[in-house]
Each structure stands twice: as C-alpha cells, then as structure tokens.
Design brief:
Chain lengths: 341, 302
C-alpha cells in the first residue's frame, strides 16, 4: 500500500494527551496533512500516536503470540522432544528428525503420494466446476432464477465439515439413502465410505458439493467486467453463441482462471485436513493419510513430536516457497497475485 | 456498504432455442436438488415417527407427521444441550473478542502516517502467507496453560489477517474531513474510532462479525486437539462423536431419560444435526446479501 507519509504541521505539545485539548486547539493534524512543517522526531510521533498504538496492541499481540511465536516451536524439529520435559530442556539431535524425509520413510512417502494425488484429482475435477457453473448461471436470462439458484448453491460453503460429512453418511452410508434403496430392490449394497479405492472420489465429490457454488462468486464478478460491446461486435460478425463464448467470454475470465489455478497449485501440499481426519477411521490410514494427517497422527497421537514437527516444518517451508513462486508466476502473467492490495 | 451487484450484463442473449434452455434448466434443477434434498431428509428424519424411521432403515426423505421426541430427548439436560451452550458461549465471546481486536487494529492501520504503521501492517500481511503448523501451535497453547480451556478455542483464531485487511480498507474509505472535524472538536483517536468510525461501519462490522461467528461455530479440529475434557466439548465435537462415529447416545447422555422411551438413534442424530444447522440458516440470508462484497474488497483470496 503506497501510503505517502504525511507530515504533521505542528508538534504535539509535550505532556498534553493527543487531541484532548479544548475545542479549537488541533493538537495533531496527522490525517489532514495539508500543510508541510518540520518532521517530527521518532519519539514525538510515538507519543502523538500512543492511543493508536494502544489500540493496535491487543490484536497485534494475539497475532504475534498465536501466529508468529509458534514459529519458534519449530525448533523442536531439531530436538528429542518429550512432552513432560520443559520446553527448551530437550536434547538437541540435529537433523535426525528429518531422516524420515531424506531417507524416504515408507509411511511418509505414502502420505506425500496421497497428498499430491488428491491435489491432482481436485485440480482436474474441482477446479473447473465453478467455472462451468458460473458460465451456466451467466447465460441465464432470468435474474430472479439466477438469484434463487445462487442462494441455494452458496449455502453448503457455510456448513462445517462435520456437518457435511454427517450428511454424506446419511446418503451414502451403509444404512444411508442409496444403500437402503438398493437393499429394498434386492440389489447388493455399495460401500461408498469404507472403500480405499474410492476414497479420493469421495473426497472430491464432497468438495464439489460444498464449495462449487461459492467458487462461482469470483467468476461471476469477472464476467460482469466483460464489455457487452464485445458480444455485439461478435454478433455483428456473425459469431454463433458458442463462438461468442469461446472468443469473448473465455478470454474475459482467462486472467482470473490462471491466477486461481496458480494459487491452487501453490497450495498443493494442503488438502482438506478436517475432511480427511473425520473419515480416516472408515478407510484406514494407508489410503487416506496425507501430510497434515501424518503430522497429527504421528505427533499428537503417537508422540513422535520431533519427527512430526520436522515434517510439518518442511511442509510449511515448501508451502511458502510454492505460494511465493506461484505469485511470481502470476506477476509474470501480468496478474496481481496474492499481494494485490 | 452497498449490496453487491452481481447481476451480469446479458452478454450472450440471442435468445437460446428451446432445447438449450431445457438442458440448462434441468442441470440447474439437479444442482439445487442435490443441495436441498439432503437438508429435507435431515429435518424429516429428526421429526418422523419411530416406526417410520425403523421401517425405512434409517434415513427418510419425508416425515409422516411431526414428532418432537428426538428434540425433547436432546434438550433434556444431556451432553447435547451442554455442548450447544458451550458453542453459543464460544461463538458469542469469540466474536466479540475478534471484532474488538480486529477493528482496533484495522483502525490504527488506517490512519495515514501513524507511528509504526508499516511494520505492523507487514506483520498482518505476512500472517496471510503461512500457517504456523499444527505441532508448534499445540506447543504454544500448551505452554500458555490453555489446554482444556475454552480460551484455546478462541484466542488462537481470534484475529484473521484477512478480516483486518477488509476492515482497514473500509475504514480508509471514510473521508478524512469527517474525522478531522471530530478532531477539531477535540475528540481523541479512540473517541473518533468509537463514536464516528464504528457507527459509519455497521454493515462491514456485521459481515466480518458474522464470518467470525460462523468460523467459531464451525470450528472442530481445535476442540479435538485442545479439549480432552468431554464436559467442555462444543457442539461440533459432539456431532462427530455421536453422528459421524455413531457412538450410541445412552440415556445417561440424554439427561437420564429412561432407555425404553428413547426415540431411534437416527432421529436423535438428525435432531443434533438440525440444532447445529439452525444458527447458520438464521444468519445465512443476511450473510448472503453482503459476503460477495466483503470477499471482493479484500481482492482475490482462494
């Protein structure tokens, strides 16, 4: 945010609280910034803005304590950490905990493989869904119908994963809607939820159900930005509706598609943690373990704190690198990237 | 804050032929049905009679009447009622804490040229780039002695950098002249924030507040991680245990109703689901009017 530094016109009188003088005495014209004057010293500015600083403090402190302080906790990746030993007293073990990564521990590799596979499947099936839906909605003639459909399809986004999975169980579970129907009609039941081979398909269908509607918002907004004149011009040139879609609509949202795709790829190592952990006991760990669940299961549950922290740390670092790299690519494509403010 | 206008200029509007229209209509109808039908089934199962539920093997799509036994059972003072109360407390206090912290932080970042603004802004922005990781987070919560405390469900997620940025961009849109006139009248920074900025920002406060509230209401994993004491479980954890993992709710769990009077487990499970859905459904129409704007203000975020 290119905020031009504004220079206050007058120094705050020492000892007087900012802006608490009688009406008429402006002790601080920071926000008007019309007249130039002597720049204030560091200390004077701090004094002048002490109320603002105090106001920032609670939020800032929460952010520092629960978002930045944990970064120090990553040090246990280099320790033989035991929960009952006070923090900082554990023995240092160098890079030992990283051995699972460097030596290719089978469980770790499986988690990595599942993670990347799920990302791949979801990029192919989940990513295009909202684009298709947005194009469909956009082509509707009736505003009213469009609004009703939007209201319905946005809703699942606001449900927790616990609720979504509970609902899916009612439909697909052993005594769920579909299997009851099959049983009634004398057909064999299908094990949707406990089948390791179908797990990725299950995850993917849940994500599509929950977030496709919500995902259309950005695309619908981008579609409004397309100049209607382009369609007219295309029509005058005799373009069919499909050719209008291909030559006007798609180029109009291409930038957004590229941007979101790059961001999604930057997030490759993160796949629905809550979603998976809730269903893991039905399909078993080999089919469902991803990096995040690996960290949870091995660390918090199995007590291998150091190893899990090491995996989490590497995952986090690679994740940040991917986000930064993806952003770089977005910039190269002339897009704003995540930093656009 | 105005309601976003997402209506799209009818770009391609040569008047599609009947077949195209029919196909579109069917596709959208199917999409909506796939979303709505499960909800109807959930409510139907929760109010259907015991016989109806048993006969159809568990999940019914349409009730045979109105039977509130399942709701009476869960509101008989058992685990569900307690969890509901805990979730309401967390969502209420959490949202208040989040809003207070976020708005004050956002306001202090919205005054041009104030002391320390740039580094503080950087701290907020960088927090969007990474998440600290599960194990380190757990250690911090543990070191602060917050395990098994409801504060562990509030404080770690209290400030969302994204929401701070949204609020900040809104505050920056308030004309300087309005704030300057208050300053000339002798109002201090906090006074200006409290009596001028906040009242001007009701709409954005409502949206951000609702997003925080929905977040607290839906949070499940932090509770699983930090709360071992089942007496402090929020509703989502109860849902997981008794609905997803299918743990049977004993009469003890339901406030001591005698076992032979209990409605079928399916109905009780669906009643719990309905109870956890209702607050979302209540705030949803309001959210829906505003969220697109809120989301677009902060530019693109996955």
């Amino acid at each position: 945010m290119a905020q031009t530094e504004r220079i206050p016109s007058r120094q705050t009188t020492a000892g007087k609280p900012t802006g608490s003088g009688p009406p008429g005495t402006v002790t601080d014209s920071r926000s008007s910034g019309r007249s130039a004057g002597k720049p204030l010293s560091w200390w004077a500015r701090a004094r002048r803005d002490k109320i603002l600083l105090l106001m920032a403090l609670p939020g800032l402190a929460l952010l520092l304590v629960f978002h930045y302080l944990p970064l120090l906790g990553n040090l246990i990746a280099f320790q033989e950490y035991l929960p009952f030993v006070p923090l900082g007293r554990s023995a240092w073990v160098g890079w030992d905990n990283f051995a699972v990564i460097f030596n290719g521990d089978a469980e770790f590799l499986n988690a990595l493989k599942n993670t990347l596979l799920i990302t791949l499947v979801q990029v192919i099936f989940v990513f295009p869904a909202p684009i298709a839906l947005a194009l469909l909605l956009n082509s509707l003639l009736s505003e009213r119908i469009k609004r009703v459909v939007q209201s319905v399809l946005y809703l699942p986004h606001f449900l927790s994963w616990v609720i979504v999975i509970a609902i899916f169980q009612q439909i697909l579970g052993g005594s769920g809607l579909i299997n009851n129907f099959l049983r009634e009609h004398g057909m064999g039941t299908i094990d949707f939820l406990g089948n390791p081979d179908g797990f990725i398909a299950l995850l993917t269908s849940q994500v599509i159900w929950k977030d496709t509607g919500w995902g259309t918002i950005l695309f619908l907004a981008a579609l409004t930005q397309i100049d209607p004149g382009l369609y007219e011009a295309a029509r005058v040139d005799g373009a069919s509706r499909w050719r209008q879609l291909w030559h006007v609509t798609v180029p109009g949202i291409r930038g957004l598609i590229i941007l979101l795709l790059i961001l999604r790829l930057g997030d490759s190592l993160t796949v629905g943690f809550e979603q998976i952990i809730l269903q893991q006991n039905l399909v078993g760990r080999p089919a469902s373990e991803v990096l995040d669940t690996y960290v949870y299961n091995n660390g918090v549950l199995a007590g291998q704190w150091g190893v899990s922290a090491a995996v989490g740390l590497v995952k986090g670092l690679v994740g940040v690198a991917l986000v930064l790299g993806a952003n770089k690519i977005a910039h190269i494509f002339g897009e704003a990237g995540v930093y656009k403010r | 804050m105005t309601t976003p206008n997402l209506t799209v200029q009818k770009g391609i509007d040569d008047g599609p032929g009947m077949p195209t229209r029919a196909v579109k209509g069917v596709v959208l109808l199917v999409c909506c049905a796939v979303v709505i039908i499960p909800f109807i089934g959930v409510v139907a199962t929760s109010i259907a009679s015991q016989q109806h539920v048993t006969n159809s093997g568990g999940f019914v799509l349409w009730p045979d009447g109105l039977n509130l036994d399942a709701y009476k059972a869960i509101f008989n003072g058992g685990v569900v009622q307690r969890a509901l109360l805990i979730s309401v407390v967390i969502a209420t206090f959490g949202t208040l804490i989040s809003l207070a912290g976020s708005t004050m932080l956002a306001y202090s970042l919205s005054r041009p040229g104030s002391f320390g603004q740039r580094p503080i802004l950087m701290i907020v922005l960088f927090s969007l780039l990474f998440s600290p990781g599960l194990i380190p987070n757990y250690l911090v919560v543990k070191e602060f002695g917050l395990l098994d405390s409801l504060l562990a469900l509030i404080l770690p997620t209290a400030i969302s950098g994204f929401n701070v940025i949204v609020l900040r961009s809104f505050f920056m849109g308030i004309p300087d002249s309005v704030l300057d006139s208050a300053r000339i009248d002798g109002a201090g920074d906090f006074r200006i924030f409290w009596s001028i900025v906040l009242p001007l920002s009701k709409a954005v406060l409502a949206v951000v507040g609702l997003f925080y509230a929905v977040g607290y209401w839906n949070a499940f994993f932090n509770a699983m991680l930090y709360i071992n004491d089942t007496a402090k479980w929020p509703l989502q954890l109860v849902l997981r245990t008794y609905v997803i993992n299918n743990t049977e709710l004993s009469s003890g769990d339901l406030g001591g109703a005698s076992a032979d009077q209990l409605p079928p487990q399916e109905s009780i499970q669906m009643a719990i689901l309905v109870v956890s859905l209702v607050p979302i459904l209540i705030v949803y129409p309001f959210l829906q009017r505003h969220f697109a704007k809120g989301m677009l203000t902060g530019a693109v975020k996955g």
